[in-house]
Structure to design on (525 residues):
């Protein structure tokens, strides 16, 4: 590996592990210290390696430096508290244990516990995403700002508030009890899926960051699968869903960085390995007796890996959306369901249903109506496409709608 | 927004229809419910099979049934969200059960937890 890539590469994989272990050791009261020590470790590495050469085992080197820095911190803290705080006696012995455990087991446990802590229900979703990116995925502030198209100050403020919240709520870095784990896992999955969607549908033009976001979300989900107490069917379903979606990553963006719609995608660009992984985890998800929304979405995504327009495909997708909407309504699911209805039962029936959807503030709604009226009533199709065009916010959306109008 | 229960009254379809017809009814019902759910107006619902059905009477006398042999038997229900009974009635009109002559869908408002009516 080239040296210029080495530090960013190690940062991405090791920063989060060091932070998780230190944070677990210090508690959220010292989360900034944990992050500072981890960042400092990489700064020290860059300086030292530049002068003395790159060590054989870089990870072990990083862990050693992080350990020493953490020990120094604990010693200073202890000295301070012994000299200045009089009533420190009772936890004196605890403070003398400066050992930092950076074993693979403790790293894994700490990261998993950290995931549950950050996805605590009392932390607002927006803060969870930011904190996850920073603490669980090791994203730099620049990268987070880039992904959200926000300024660095905004991101810093958001992270600051999120850390404050962790302290206020006195959230502990630990796994929930077995009786709580299902409910808490739900929240973790929501955050992971949000993280993935943030990458998949991001407004950012930076392809690399978008892809990294998706891969990180998948990695976090895989951590849950590797752990016995969190390896549940719907966790497998979520990973399956993300594999299927991610398989189209190369096909859905063209060389100019523009979005390529499903119909126009070249299936040869779909990633066969990810599709087969998606199938594997969907199989793993097919146990137990709970049909989660992730199962339904993963199965829809599975059908979407079949490009051919068969009756069987659309009937299956329609029924899956019927179920999905009963579990959880969303405008996008309602629109997709109506499209599937037109493919399975015909346009006339779909138009009657579409007219009742009541999604007047959504440009995709008018694009769908335009699509449904095409070849049935082209005048109405045009009106709807034009309405969609005037509401669409991105150039890509406008271009794809314009193409539809031109075809009429 | 209020909730209304749509109660289906119909003969036990299994006794009068072919498997293909049953399959079709099932699809129609799923599509009908999916249509309501796609308007974010679906709250819940269930089919009520006739197997092992019992009726408990006054003095705790228990009889078997109902058996689904008459068109007035309750076969299932769904609960919808609607602004008025008229809106709920519009949903009910699409119910595939109504394709059978003599079958009906009863629309009743559900009491809200936070009020007395």
């Amino acid at each position: 590996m080239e040296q210029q890539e080495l530090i960013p590469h190690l940062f991405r994989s090791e920063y989060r592990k060091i932070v998780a272990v230190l944070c677990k050791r210090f508690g959220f009261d010292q989360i900034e210290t944990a992050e500072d020590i981890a960042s400092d470790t990489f700064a020290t590495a860059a300086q030292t390696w530049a002068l003395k050469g790159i060590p054989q085992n870089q990870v072990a080197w990083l862990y050693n430096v992080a350990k020493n820095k953490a020990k120094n911190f604990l010693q200073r803290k202890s000295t301070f508290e012994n000299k200045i705080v009089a009533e420190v006696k009772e936890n004196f012995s605890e403070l003398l244990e400066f050992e930092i455990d950076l074993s693979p087991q403790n790293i894994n446990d700490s990261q998993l516990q950290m995931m549950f802590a950050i996805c605590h229900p009392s932390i607002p979703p927006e803060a969870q995403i930011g904190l996850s990116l920073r603490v669980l995925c090791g994203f730099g502030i620049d990268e987070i700002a880039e992904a959200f198209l926000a300024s660095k100050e905004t991101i810093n403020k958001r992270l600051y508030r999120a850390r404050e919240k962790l302290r206020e709520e006195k959230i502990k870095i630990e796994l929930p009890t077995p009786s709580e784990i299902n409910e808490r896992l739900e929240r973790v999955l929501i955050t992971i899926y949000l993280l993935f969607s943030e990458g998949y549908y991001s407004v950012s033009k930076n392809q690399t960051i978008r892809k990294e976001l998706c891969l990180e979300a998948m990695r976090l989900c895989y951590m849950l699968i590797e752990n016995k107490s969190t390896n549940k069917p719907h966790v497998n379903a979520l990973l399956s869903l993300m594999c299927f979606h991610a398989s189209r990553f190369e096909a859905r963006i063209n060389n100019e960085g523009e979005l390529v719609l499903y119909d126009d995608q070249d299936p040869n660009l779909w990633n066969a390995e990810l599709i087969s992984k998606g199938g594997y985890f969907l199989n793993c998800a097919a146990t137990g007796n709970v049909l989660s929304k992730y199962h339904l979405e993963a199965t829809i995504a599975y059908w979407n890996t079949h490009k051919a327009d068969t009756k069987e495909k659309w009937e299956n997708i329609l029924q899956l959306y019927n179920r999905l909407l009963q579990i959880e309504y969303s405008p996008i699911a309602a629109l997709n369901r109506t499209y599937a209805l037109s493919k399975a039962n015909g346009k006339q029936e779909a138009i009657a249903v579409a007219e009742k959807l009541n999604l007047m503030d959504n440009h995709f709604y008018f694009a769908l109506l335009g699509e449904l009226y095409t070849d049935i009533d082209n005048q109405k199709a045009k009106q709807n496409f034009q309405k969609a065009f005037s509401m669409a916010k991105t150039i890509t959306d406008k271009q794809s709608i314009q193409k539809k109008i031109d075809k009429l | 927004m209020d909730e209304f229960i749509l109660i289906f009254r119909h003969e036990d379809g299994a006794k009068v229809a072919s498997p293909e017809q049953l399959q079709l009814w099932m699809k129609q019902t799923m599509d009908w419910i999916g249509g309501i759910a796609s308007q974010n107006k679906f709250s819940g619902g269930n089919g009520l099979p006739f197997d092992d059905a019992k009726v408990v009477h006054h003095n705790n006398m228990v009889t078997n049934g109902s058996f689904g042999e008459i068109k007035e038997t309750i076969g299932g229900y769904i609960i919808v969200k609607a602004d008025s009974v008229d809106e709920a009635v519009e949903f009910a009109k699409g119910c595939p059960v109504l394709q059978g002559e003599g079958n009906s869908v009863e629309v009743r408002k559900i009491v809200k937890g936070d009020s007395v009516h």
User: Anything to note?
Assistant: The helical segments of chain B are 13-16, 19-37, 85-93.
